[in-house]
Structure formats: C-alpha cells, structure tokens
Amino acid sequence: MYDSPGTITVRLDSERGETIRKALAAEQRAKMLALVARRAMNVNEIAATLGLSQPTASTHIRVLEEAGLIECEYASTGKGSEKRCWTRFDRLTFELDSGGPETEENVQEVQMPIGLFTNVSIKPTCGLASSSRVIGFLDNPQSFLMPDRAEAQILWFADGWIEYTFPCDLPPTAEITGLELVAELCSEAPNYDNEWPSDITAWINGVEVGTWTAPGDFGGHRGRLNPDWWSDSLTQFGALKSWSVTNLGSSIDGTAAGPVRLPDLDTSYGRPVVVRIGNKPDAVHLGGLNLFGRRFGNYPQDLVLRIRYQLKTPTQVSAEVATLLGADQRP
User: Fold this and answer.
1) Cα 4–chain centre separation
2) 168 and 273 Cβ atoms separated by less than 8 Å
C-alpha cells in the first residue's frame, strides 16, 4: 500500500512481501530500480547503462513491473515508440510481523489528469503545457478553457484556485474511513525561484482541510520526467504532498493540520468528492502554485484521491434499517 507520499510499506511475511523480496534478489534488478528512481528511462537506456542485452533487460523489467516496483508506459517519439519505466516511490519499508492478524484495507484510488479540472479562478502569471507543447497562450486565463487542456501535464498560476470533481463509486454498504489527496506541487514565480513561499490550501467538498507553505518554485536542476523541449530556466519539479482527513481530524504528511473530520465533509452515498487547491485571498504568502501531472516533475502520477473504506456487516446494516424504520413509525 502507498501509506504516505513516495512510500510503500509492506508486511515482511505477506504474499506481496515475498514477491518483492524475490524481485530484488537479483542484483541487476536492484540496480535497475535505483536507476529509474532517479529519472524515467527507456528500456534501451537501462540496458546500455547496465551493460545488458535488450531482451535480458526486458525480462528483468517485467519482473519488477509484476512486483509493483516500477511502472511502464509506451510513449511516442520521433522514431516510433519506446517503453519508459519509472518508480512511484522513493522509500520501500518492510514491517515485521507484530503478532496480530493481517488485515486488508479497502481503498478506491482515482488518478485525475490535471487538465480535467471542473472549475477554475486564476490570475497571471499562468499557463498550461502538455508533454509536447504549451497549450494556448502564456499568461492568458482563457487558455484554461481550451479543449486541449485535457492534455495538460503541468499548469501554473500566480493567484487563485483550481477545482476537480472525483467520482466516489463505492458499494452502498461502504463506510468511508479516510480521504487522502496527493499532489506534486510548488509555488509559482517568474521562471523559477527556490525561495518564493506560497501558502497552498486544499478544500474538500467546500471545507478547508489544511494549508502547506511551499518554500519555493523549484528549479536549478531538471525534473526527471520533464520533456526535452522544456527549458532549464523554468520550473522543474515539486514536492509530493498529502492532505488526509479521518474521523480524528485532518493532517498534511501525517502532521495534524486542523480539527476537520470526515463527518464535516458530507461524504454521503452517491455524492462525488470535490477538491479545490489554491491560495486563500488572505494568505500570508500569496505565491501561486505549479501542479504537475504524470509526465512532468519528479513523480509519475496525476492528481490522486484515495478513498479508504470498510464494508458494513449484515448486522450493522440491519441495525441501521431498524433504526430508520423505528424513526418512520414515530408520531
């Protein structure tokens, strides 16, 4: 499971733990994992770096992919297509058996392409870009309304907010136990400025969840996923941040962020989850934001919403029905 940004935690004696241990038992596969943790690489690059034949490299890559340690995707190039590989984590943790039963967590994860926002209110500097070009015109908020926005892999604005609507397609007997929003982002300055703070706030269903102060608009060395045409003088990557809400309160990267709890968010059955990210008008550091998709920055993911839930037992469902029926029969 991905229990915090950039981290996989696996119980040592679990079936998945055994699969991962076997995948890393070969020295060449461990070296491959270290390579693609630095930047996305294609199969030929990996083979050449490690001095392997392309078929041998492909075999090792398949083992790592089946173990869930790397992800691969075919991308178009000027000469055809290539298979690119990367990791979605930079820390792998094994937990020892605590003596308790192993429990399986129910999680619905939705990765939303950053160009598929449903509402936006922003001010320049602003813009969007796909993996191959700038979309529309720079510093023109109208570009955020163009149909091509669906292809966006990076977007930025100096002030305002952007909003996404996530489906919440859970069984009727599901009880939500936690919501987690994960995004790669940083602040927004002309070109880039590593010391340009911005108070970036997340809202869920209209309720403020917490604010993270981004220390700057990160640049100076290339993001490992950035396309070749993207200039070195521009924003390069962000930090992977996680906003979470449970029945105990809200947190950012596991640190308490406020008193908001799940009941405050109205996560009733059949209702989508609306996420807003941006600057509050009265923010102390009004420094905008950059938001990265799966082909920009350092982390190959889109905007992620994880909905954690447990299924109610038949006894719990019967008790709830009895309570409702009893309420209907009151005078």
Assistant:
1) 10
2) yes
Tens-digit pLDDT profile for the chain (331 aa)?
Answer: 444 446 677 778 788 888 889 999 999 999 999 888 877 888 999 999 999 999 999 999 999 998 888 888 887 666 677 888 888 677 788 877 655 544 445 888 899 999 999 999 999 999 999 999 999 999 999 999 999 999 999 999 999 999 999 999 888 889 999 999 999 999 999 999 999 999 999 999 999 999 999 999 999 999 989 999 999 999 999 999 999 999 999 999 989 998 999 999 999 888 999 999 999 999 999 999 999 999 999 888 899 999 989 887 655 555 554 555 565 555 5
Which residue bears the tokens 């938001």?
291
Cβ proximity of 302 and 113 under 8 Å: yes
- In the chain, DSSP assigns E strands to 7-11, 41-42, 71-77, 80-86, 91-95, 106-112, 119-129, 134-135, 154-166, 174-186, 198-204, 207-214, 239-246, 249-252, 255-258, 273-278, 289-292, 303-311
Given the DSSP bridges, would you call strands 7-11 and 91-95 parallel, antiparallel or unpaired? parallel
Q: Name the percent of the chain in helix, strand, coil, to the closest 5.
A: 20, 40, 40
Dist CA 304 CA 167 (whole Å): 12
Domains belonging to the chain, first-starting first, are: 7-95 (1.10.10.10), 106-311 (2.60.120.260)
